[in-house]
Amino acid sequence: MNWLEDIELRGSIVTLEPLNMDHVEPLQTAVKDGEFWKLWYARVPAPEQMEDYVTTAIADAGRGNIAFAVRINETKKIVGTTRFYNVDGLNRRPMLGYTWYAESACRTGINTETKLLLLQHVFEQKNAIAVEFRTHFFNQTSRTSIERLGAKQDGILRSHQIMHDGSIRDTVVYSILRHEWPTVKDNLLNRSNQT
């Protein structure tokens, strides 16, 4: 049995729905808003790659890696996706990432509430000891976002991965530890109330 399971998480702004094939077309529309797949340092699927992206994520859920579509409650519009991956159930330590949004959803409070829902679930319902985040060294937007959550940098994995364009990625590793969660939660709740 997997430590994490498919579960819907609902907040005041967004609902996180376990990813399924019905999300392919709305995600294709969302990813066209901003065209972030064109960023050399990002791993965002192009519209024509979305079906394979979702299919792979669904298959990965069988191993306890849970992906979510992010739906705005008010408009019912799908604006992006995020997931728990490389989940280590034995040590109660997931990675949280593969997060991308339509450009119109950026800087709106959507990511703050999304991360609050995910972290609250994994720390408070699943008793996680840590949650890890990884991003490209040159993805300053992602690094700033992770740091604003309250995650602390653990280090940099140098020459860690080969990117789709053949460049070599240095990966910055962050984490939030169990004893840090109450302070991180207060920060996220405060930021949610300001949006």
Walkthrough of the structure:
- The chain is α+β, with helices and mostly antiparallel strands and 195 residues long.
- It has one domain (9-193): Gcn5-related N-acetyltransferase (GNAT) (Aminopeptidase, 3-Layer(aba) Sandwich), CATH 3.40.630.30.
- 31% of the residues lie in helices and 31% in strands.
- It contains 5 helices and 8 strands; from the N terminus they run E-E-H-H-E-E-E-H-E-H-E-E-H.
- It has helices spanning 24-32, 50-61, 110-125, 140-149, 181-193, and strands at residues 9-10, 14-18, 67-72, 78-88, 93-101, 130-136, 152-162, 168-177.
- Strands 1-2-3-4-5 form a 5-stranded antiparallel β-sheet, sandwiched between helices. A 3-stranded antiparallel β-sheet has the order 6-8-7.
- Strand 4 and strand 5 (93-101) form a beta hairpin.
- Helix 3 packs antiparallel against helix 5 (181-193).
- The longest helix has 16 residues, at 110-125.
- It is globular, with a radius of gyration of 16 Å.
- The mean pLDDT is 95.
Shape: globular
Q: What is the helix tally? A: 5
Radius of gyration: 16 Å
CATH fold annotation: Aminopeptidase
Average predicted confidence as pLDDT = 95
Describe the sheet with the most strands: 5 strands, antiparallel
Class computed from helices, strands and strand pairing: alpha+beta
**Helical proportion?**
25-40%
In short:
The chain is built from 5 helices and 8 strands; from the N terminus they run ββααβββαβαββα. By secondary structure, it is of the alpha+beta class.
